[in-house]
Amino acid sequence: MTPEPRSGFASLFGENLRHHREAADLSREELSFRASLHRTAVGQLERGERVARADTLVKLAGALDIPPGVLLEGIAWRPPHPQIGSFEHSSSPRVTP
């Protein structure tokens, strides 16, 4: 069975999550403990295999001691055509608290 392709949003969110986890010098296991998530969930989110629900985003941000919106920085929806759209990373730089 072939794995499903990663969504643009999930991949970009995962990059942001990994960036801020590493900036906080936390292991995936420590972050999952602090956010009250299963230990495999953080890895799946970072790899873009899973999309975070709003409550999960808030838990992760709280565990990282950053505002939830920071995990969404640089992610934008820009429809190139009226019926087609995609998520993309904006050109704004990341801000590390």
Task: Report on this structure.
This protein is mainly alpha-helical and 97 residues long. The protein has one domain (8-89): lambda repressor-like DNA-binding domains (434 Repressor (Amino-terminal Domain), Orthogonal Bundle), CATH 1.10.260.40. The longest helix is centred in the first third of the chain and has 16 residues, at 8-23. It is elongated and about 45 Å long. It is built from 4 helices and 2 strands, in the order H-H-H-H-E-E. A two-stranded antiparallel ribbon has the order 1-2. Mean pLDDT is 86; it is low at 1-5. Helix 2 (28-34) crosses helix 3 (39-46).
Stretches with pLDDT under 50, minimum 5 residues: 1-5
Which fold name fills CATH's third level, the topology? 434 Repressor (Amino-terminal Domain)
Arrangement of strands in the largest sheet: 1-2
Number of strands: 2
CATH superfamily: lambda repressor-like DNA-binding domains
Question: What oligomerization state is this entry in?
Answer: single chain
Order of helices and strands: HHHHEE
**Helix content bin:** 40-55%
Task: Give a short summary of the structure.
With 97 residues, this protein is mostly helical. The protein has four helices and two strands; from the N terminus they run H-H-H-H-E-E.
Quickly list its features.
97 residues; 434 Repressor (Amino-terminal Domain); 4 helices; 2 strands
SSE topology sketch:
Layout: H1 8-23, H2 28-34, H3 39-46, H4 54-64, E1 75-77, E2 87-89
Antiparallel strand pairs: 1-2
